[in-house]
Automatic annotation (TrEMBL):
It comes from Aromatoleum evansii. The chain crosses the membrane at residues 44-64, 76-95, 101-120, 127-143, 149-170, 182-203, 215-234, 241-261, 267-285. This is DMT family transporter. InterPro entries: EamA_dom, EmrE-like. Keywords: Membrane, Transmembrane, Transmembrane helix. Residues 11-143, 152-283 form the EamA domain. Pfam families: EamA. The keyword Oxidoreductase does not apply.
Length: 293
């Protein structure tokens, strides 16, 4: 008989804050590299480093069983959607400030709701659609499609958010049949394999100096460390407790965007970011209470 799961909400929140800080730092390094190198090369570096770290950490323990999956086809699809997330976000970083890209990615919970209703036959009370529509109004304030501030980066980031929503839905389905470490390993394998196919087209010999090489290697370390802290957070506290705090990543992104790139969102963008966060918190708490009901 399994022991009951531990419940240490404060510890879980602290782990989560660390994970979000690492993810924001990962985005900062990605944006720095994307300003000097093609998106495809940066995405490859992120997944290749992640794959190497995954093998070093988990292969000695699990061997080839690390990749044993009940649904390998879905694992490949899930891995490709995460590559789409990374590519869309990094392409956005080339054209937009860090904080605004991060805010746009936070429309993902709204998209997950739409996909869950459409493809997983989950039931949703009508009133819960209200914060979804309000949240998308925040997106319009950031994107401003009728104004001069709009750029193609918004499209790339929103496409990445759609991929992220599909990735989360597939993760829900696969969590019932595969271990977390298997999902993590397949993500790294598919990402490294898919981007390696594109690498010869975009790689420029001698383009990386020592500093950029170290930054490229740090992508996998930051990603793996952040995911490890996220797993520790979810072991210490339920997802419904942690989810409202995930928006702290926006604070980290705003701070790092200001310190590293000198970017600060304008008034309309800050308003849009606030609307997205408020709507997302409402969705998170409504999910928490609906599960208790």
């Amino acid at each position: 008989m399994n022991a009951p799961a531990a419940h240490h909400p404060i510890r879980g929140i602290l782990y989560l804050m660390g994970a979000l800080a690492l993810f924001a730092l990962l985005d900062t390094v990605s944006k720095t590299l994307a300003s000097r190198h093609p998106v495809a090369v940066v995405v490859w570096g992120r997944y290749f480093a992640h794959f190497v770290i995954t093998l070093l950490v988990f292969f000695p323990r699990y061997g080839t069983g690390l990749f044993k999956s009940a649904r390998p086809g879905l694992q490949v699809m899930r891995g490709l959607t995460l590559v789409g997330v990374t590519a869309g976000v990094i392409a956005g970083f080339q054209r937009m400030p860090l904080a605004e890209v991060t805010a746009l990615v936070f429309v993902t919970p709204f998209l997950v709701m739409i996909l869950a209703v459409s493809f997983l036959d989950e039931k949703m009370p009508r009133w819960r659609w209200i914060p979804v529509f309000i949240g998308f109004s925040g997106v319009l304030l950031i994107a401003r499609p009728s104004g001069n501030a709009f750029n193609i980066g918004v499209v790339f980031v929103l496409l990445g958010a759609v991929c992220y929503a599909i990735y989360q839905v597939l993760t829900r389905k696969l969590s019932a049949v595969d271990r977390s470490v298997t999902q993590l390993s397949w993500t790294a394998l598919v990402g490294a394999a898919a981007t390696s196919l594109l690498l010869p087209k975009y790689w420029v010999p001698g383009a990386f100096d020592l500093v950029d090489g170290l930054l490229m290697g740090s992508l996998g370390v930051l990603a793996a460390s952040g995911h490890l802290l996220m797993i520790m957070a979810l072991r210490a506290a339920p997802a419904t407790t942690l989810s409202p705090f995930t928006y702290a990543q926006l604070v980290w992104a705003t701070l790092l965007g200001w310190l590293v790139f000198g970017d600060l969102p304008d008034g309309l963008s800050l308003t849009g970011m606030g609307i997205i966060v408020a709507s997302g918190v409402v969705v998170a708490y409504s999910e928490r209470f609906s599960r208790k009901a």
